[in-house]
Amino acid sequence: CWGPEWPGLLLLFQIQQTGSLDKVVSWTHEFPYAHQLWVGQFLGFLNIYDPDYAKAVYSRGDPKAPDFYDFFLQWIGKGLLVLQGPKWFQHRKLLTPGFHYDVLKPYVALFAESTRIMLDKWEKKAREQKSFDIYSDVGHMALDSLMKCTFGKGTSGLNDRDNNYYLSVEELTLLMQQRIYSFQYHNDFIYFLTPHGRRFLRACQVAHDHTDQVIRERKAALQDEKERERIQSKRHLDFLDILLGARDEEGIKLSDEDLRAEVDTFMFEGHDTTTSAISWVLYCMSLYPEHQRRCREEIQEILGDRDTLKWDDLAEMTYLTMCIKESFRLYPPVPQVYRQLSQPVNFVDGRSLPEGSLISLHIYALHRNSTVWPDPEVFNPLRFSPENVAGRHSFAFIPFSAGPRNCIGQQFAMAEVKVVTALCLLRFEFAPDPSRLPIKMPQLVLRSKNGIHLHLKPLGPGSEK
Predict the structure, then answer these.
(1) pTM score of the predicted model
(2) Of 220, 278, 285, 350, which has the fewest Cβ atoms less than 10 A away?
(3) What are the binding residues?
(4) Domains of the chain: which residue ranges?
(5) Closest Cα partner for 141 from 169, 116, 108, 109?
């Protein structure tokens, strides 16, 4: 059982500090499977980073740990991220068609459109021949893409209301992280009396007003027969179309509250995570010019004389895909996830935990666990060649979590990361700034305390072939 023989009585606030991620990795040598993790004196987790331990818990459908994920309720409501039981299963089933390949295919053009807006901005910045922080620009691009894929936004970019929404999501993410790691803020009554709590509520209101207005406008449009025909004949369905049309076997559709929750959940999960993923992939490309060159050559060969990407091109980007996965291994967009056991669990070493226990899966430490990954700090895309993948534990690499509660949008995310990275490599050569290397910070997503500063060298008019 989880008793005195479990090593490593540690405080959670220690792991949010600079250098803390690699501190947890060092503990994997001292404590082979897991260690205890405490928030204050009363809330204890088992922090795991071993594939067998991960499989024992994450191959099941245990709910998210309410001690952390309940903090999301004020913002994203009861969507897939926090739901459990029959309602989670119902929502998962209703939303799955929204991530079918046929729905995702037209998104490639939308990803490319938003990316080119960002790259044109980078052309101007690159002329100054100084490094700059790419993270914020990638964030705006990811939100622009999501607005188009979720709400069917036009090609003119974000308006003032959309930008306010972007800023509110950014602030909510930071405030959420701060609350999770500040034990005195765990009490709702106390938190919402503080300046941080009031800021959180104001930002929630901005996010909710935006989502509610878009849903109202779309529903009103669907009342008009001509507008309904126009929407249904669009060359692609957006995520809101899918949600509004979703019905279960009994013909029951999502309520307005459920609609908002799923839209807000998708906007949060699909924006901040892809921003982190793309930024770290480009950072890895900058560090390893030989891999960057090989990816660029692969993309150029796939495109030939074409200047646009198609869905079928993505499957041919085998080396780029291996590099993206290796970046996800070293810099997982979500470094840590939490569960609460709905029934006891027995681990491979004979230890066990009772029902109700809290589990923290440290994906960052799992991906750098030297008993699983030889030379874990080395960037080696060939780890993800078919022959190497075939012999690896199925829970050794889980950037999108694993099991029945894995990320429903992982195909969407992979497609976006491939499109954005490919177009970036065709336009620019990336190099790091040795004087401003990123400082990893484990927030809700993996960020850098000082941004991600890169040098960009334009490759000329023929480079986007």
Answers:
(1) 0.91
(2) 350
(3) 407
(4) 10-464
(5) 116
